[in-house]
Amino acid sequence: MSTQLRLDLTHAVTDTDLQLLQPNILEAHELLHSGRGAGSEFTGWLDLPSSFDREEFIRIQNAAARIRCAADVLIVIGIGGSYLGTRATLELLSHSFHNQLPRDRRPGTAVYFAGHQLSPTYLNDLIDIIGDKDVVINVISKSGTTTEPAIAFRHLRQWMEQKYGQAEARRRIYATTDRARGALKQLADDEGYETFVVPDDIGGRYSVLTAVGLLPIAAAGIDINALMAGAADAMNAYREPSLASNACYRYAAARQHLYRQGKSIEVLAAYEPGTQYLVEWWKQLYGESEGKDNKGLFPASLQLTTDLHSMGQYIQDGLRQLFETVLTFDRPRRDLQIPRVESDGDGLNFLAGQSMHYVNERAMAGTLLAHVDGGVPNIHIALPEPDAYNLGHLFYFFEKACAISGYMLGVNPFDQPGVESYKKNMFALLGKPGYEAAKAELEKRLQR
Amino acid sequence: MSTQLRLDLTHAVTDTDLQLLQPNILEAHELLHSGRGAGSEFTGWLDLPSSFDREEFIRIQNAAARIRCAADVLIVIGIGGSYLGTRATLELLSHSFHNQLPRDRRPGTAVYFAGHQLSPTYLNDLIDIIGDKDVVINVISKSGTTTEPAIAFRHLRQWMEQKYGQAEARRRIYATTDRARGALKQLADDEGYETFVVPDDIGGRYSVLTAVGLLPIAAAGIDINALMAGAADAMNAYREPSLASNACYRYAAARQHLYRQGKSIEVLAAYEPGTQYLVEWWKQLYGESEGKDNKGLFPASLQLTTDLHSMGQYIQDGLRQLFETVLTFDRPRRDLQIPRVESDGDGLNFLAGQSMHYVNERAMAGTLLAHVDGGVPNIHIALPEPDAYNLGHLFYFFEKACAISGYMLGVNPFDQPGVESYKKNMFALLGKPGYEAAKAELEKRLQR
């Protein structure tokens, strides 16, 4: 297989302007590959597609096979990077109604998520529909103390022990966590859960191709060998720091150019509903990597053509602070032909016999030009089809472009210092021991 | 029942700055209520909660009862305003897994959407899971010629006729369309579908409380009387143009103040996953109403606490071009208690016995103050609970605030001229008769 990602910058930046950024690209490339850039202790994802732990990979495949065998339902407990990559993959590559298909018509276990928010309504509702099913849990947390997944896991673990008894519940819980320390690692050792590793040198938002993503993705019946092969080909394709040949760096440079031109929002727009969580994954990757020091493009998303009938007016004619990055696939997972109708009241018989994908593709092309005419610069990323190989490629493409973008912007693309602010306030307001002074002060502010 | 929406502008605007906008509010109010403002032919939503057609309302309830009786599955075919209001309501008020509950454990029909994009993958997948179910269709389109729903309806109508035969298929299709003309109205008359009305004086994004939304919402088992009662109370609560007493106008004024201060993005953040499509509905309402003449706030959304672990870093520390509007409910639909765990490895025993909703609420308060400290102005809208009455109230609150906001901004809040641009291009590229000249030119641009 060969990489076939195509990047079109015709409507984003001239070749001349792009070439002006070659020195910045070289510098960012050097920071990333030399390990001298900020946050370099978190660049384990860079050669992951070749250096990943083969022994663990086989253990993941075996565990996934056991899960598919033992369970109707896998509950994935995780948030942020321990949630979005898996969900992005399942939604793009699985049947649109995977969880609702009868078991003999889907390639893997039904997958539900928990611990990705603090809604008691959701957690109660989830238990309603899995109550009579055979369930396995994959709890994913580096520390084991992140509030959302920890609360969900407390509740679901108790529920599993009531349902199966302690011994069987233990066999049905898999923990993906730190290699050596932390609350979840300790608990897993005490209880005898099978464990997988969240590597020390890969941050959450870059972790989809580690056990964090691979175990639930494999359990759902998706080919994780193909996913890794796509990422490996991308790793090889985007090694050289020349803007002329490296599409990944061209993407990073183009968006940096547009940011410097005063654009403050990048809208990722995709034409398949299965991309809904892929764009959410992308929003975390770029928002968390670049959004610091009062800088960075605000990442937003569009589901098209759905949102042409909602946000389309704004994109066409609103404030000109944005540009659009369009993601398309040349071929859909399934197609169908538009039927002829005798009466032709809707006037669509000129499309009869055409494939619906063709109409979607023409809608994309027409929209792209309309938005360009409306003053919205456009970056177009095209992939052959939505399969595991191409998605692995795309994950790596976006990850490396994000790291390069961050260095070009002058930030550490691998930390997230701002995430601590709300946590401190939350713990104080919840009365966590040690936060007493902050508590009084915050409560006073809330009572104003 | 009385209206209990609470609006807190403490962290958005001072009373003094707000009062400076009272003359603008008076002017906008006058334009809206006198019918002398731009687009006044589309202000039928303004007194809809009192003036709506009672005869049709009863017919909607009767049809919904028949649908609940005759069908396991209702397919709603529509896009934009013919889609988002219904989906927003179902996702907020129904069980999180409504469609997957056994029939005797849900109050109404399972509801699936179609015609809200051009994905053949989705449409094929949808048919996989409804193939053996009893199906009713509600096709919603003012004209009947909008491409997305028209293609889906062509396909699903053929499928229904094959499944049920022509006569029974006709009894299982309900059309919500223009009162008198248009392709769908014509077809419905020819075929004998029961029809409901998309009013002439209410645009798509303001239409959730017409038959457009009410029929599928009632079929799903939601109390549409309560929905209308909430809207009626809102209509009465937000009549007077005084900023001192009118929370709806205060919201409009606050966001206009922040826009004039240079903010260009409004992020609507909600703390219940059931609000996912309510914020999409809000994005259409505001984006399509204000995003024109190269003006307007870009509407974006956050699902919290989920997105604190993705977009949270950006909100806290990124480019300071945004403000946040937080939507919360005082009580969840369902709650649960956090269990005590002997070992307390996750350190959460200080929360044992507390309700999960309490933790969610404290996370919200802590986040709000953290974001304010990070330079993000904050508007807080709180409602007692997610039920039909409060949602009806909120729909009206947002609709009226949007109209007022549009007039304050100096745009026509009821048109969407920019939506035509992509349609023209798309039709030309698809070879629609009459678009030949444009076709050649666009294709040349695409081949560059």
From TrEMBL, chains A, B:
<dbReference type="InterPro" id="IPR001672">
    <property type="entry name" value="G6P_Isomerase"/>
</dbReference>
<dbReference type="GO" id="GO:0048029">
    <property type="term" value="F:monosaccharide binding"/>
</dbReference>
<comment type="pathway">
    <text>Carbohydrate degradation; glycolysis; D-glyceraldehyde 3-phosphate and glycerone phosphate from D-glucose: step 2/4.</text>
</comment>
<keyword id="KW-0324">Glycolysis</keyword>
<dbReference type="InterPro" id="IPR018189">
    <property type="entry name" value="Phosphoglucose_isomerase_CS"/>
</dbReference>
<dbReference type="GO" id="GO:0097367">
    <property type="term" value="F:carbohydrate derivative binding"/>
</dbReference>
<comment type="similarity">
    <text>Belongs to the GPI family.</text>
</comment>
<dbReference type="Pfam" id="PF00342">
    <property type="entry name" value="PGI"/>
</dbReference>
<protein>
    <recommendedName>
        <fullName>Glucose-6-phosphate isomerase</fullName>
        <ecNumber>5.3.1.9</ecNumber>
    </recommendedName>
</protein>
<dbReference type="GO" id="GO:0006096">
    <property type="term" value="P:glycolytic process"/>
</dbReference>
<keyword id="KW-0312">Gluconeogenesis</keyword>
<dbReference type="InterPro" id="IPR046348">
    <property type="entry name" value="SIS_dom_sf"/>
</dbReference>
<feature type="active site">
    <location>
        <position position="423"/>
    </location>
</feature>
<dbReference type="InterPro" id="IPR035476">
    <property type="entry name" value="SIS_PGI_1"/>
</dbReference>
<keyword id="KW-0963">Cytoplasm</keyword>
<dbReference type="InterPro" id="IPR035482">
    <property type="entry name" value="SIS_PGI_2"/>
</dbReference>
<dbReference type="GO" id="GO:0051156">
    <property type="term" value="P:glucose 6-phosphate metabolic process"/>
</dbReference>
<comment type="pathway">
    <text>Carbohydrate biosynthesis; gluconeogenesis.</text>
</comment>
<keyword id="KW-0413">Isomerase</keyword>
<dbReference type="GO" id="GO:0006094">
    <property type="term" value="P:gluconeogenesis"/>
</dbReference>
<comment type="function">
    <text>Catalyzes the reversible isomerization of glucose-6-phosphate to fructose-6-phosphate.</text>
</comment>
<dbReference type="GO" id="GO:0004347">
    <property type="term" value="F:glucose-6-phosphate isomerase activity"/>
</dbReference>
<feature type="active site" description="Proton donor">
    <location>
        <position position="288"/>
    </location>
</feature>
<dbReference type="GO" id="GO:0005829">
    <property type="term" value="C:cytosol"/>
</dbReference>
